[in-house]
Amino acid sequence: MAKSIRPLGDRILIKRIEAENKTSGGILIPDNAKEKPAEGAVIAVGNGKTLDDGKVAKLTVKAGDTVLFGKWSGTEVKLEGVEHVLLKEDEILAILEK
Predict the structure, then answer these.
(1) pLDDT at residue 36, as a whole number
(2) Superfamily in which the 1-17+36-98 domain is placed by CATH
């Protein structure tokens, strides 16, 4: 049975985009030496951030966007064996334009 997830508030679910396993010179990088990528695809977003006056501000990012986020940002979650990151919108550094 496939699970679905809907983040709450201003939280965003991101699937990390895997880093290259070779350097530009062709040297293979072992898995234990790779850094976790700080780039990912937005899978799902919450309804928005609740402001002090009770109104909800819509999120800037949307499902399908590719984003950059801090290396230590968010909370790692595993869905159907695949690692994802759940973080707040203010932890996203940039949206990559195509």
Answers:
(1) 61
(2) GroES chaperonin (2.30.33.40)
